[in-house]
Amino acid sequence: MSDFIQFLGNGGPVMVPIGLASVVGLAVFLERAVALRRGRVVPSDLAREVVEMLRQERPADALTAARKRDAAVARVVEAAIDARGNARPVIKERLEEVGRREAAELERNAPIIGTVASVSPLMGLLGTVWGMIQTFEVIQTQGMGVVGSLAGGISQALITTMAGLSVGIPALIAYRWVLARVDALVLELEEVGLEVLDLVAGPSAGGDDGGAA
Known about the structure:
By secondary structure, the protein is mainly α. Helix content is 83%, strand content 0%. The longest helix has 54 residues, at 147-200.
């Protein structure tokens, strides 16, 4: 372990921000992985329960069930039931507004991972340039004969390049995964929202507005 730490230390001062970026990226990814679990965003049991209650013309019970759960789908259902009795376009607009807010919440902190994925290789490149500058300074002052000094600068350049790519590549994969996960969950939210919309803005709701839903 000490050899590995010494190896990373040979990369020079640029290794510090690369290391910090890796910690931040990993922390945010783990937080998003927990927050984007399906059971926390679109729990299937709640969706089935609410839809069944609405089919049985029990909107008050469905609203109570939704308010007991801290989940995105619960807030979508709550918004639809609260707008019950309005015209279908009005309820749909309300659902879209809530859906956009929930989608933004699901994507929260994801740009941090994308930033880590973009910046880490650049910081590695910065370390590479710094190492090569040191190498050429040794050549200028001591000539080509001092192999040890030359190897130190080249080694630093390669270590920082490796470190930047080692952080940036996984961060890019994690960022793409988070975005794909958000898209999948938003699609499920839309499906539940449309199903609830059909039940809430039914014939009785449309009749209140003097037209069919």
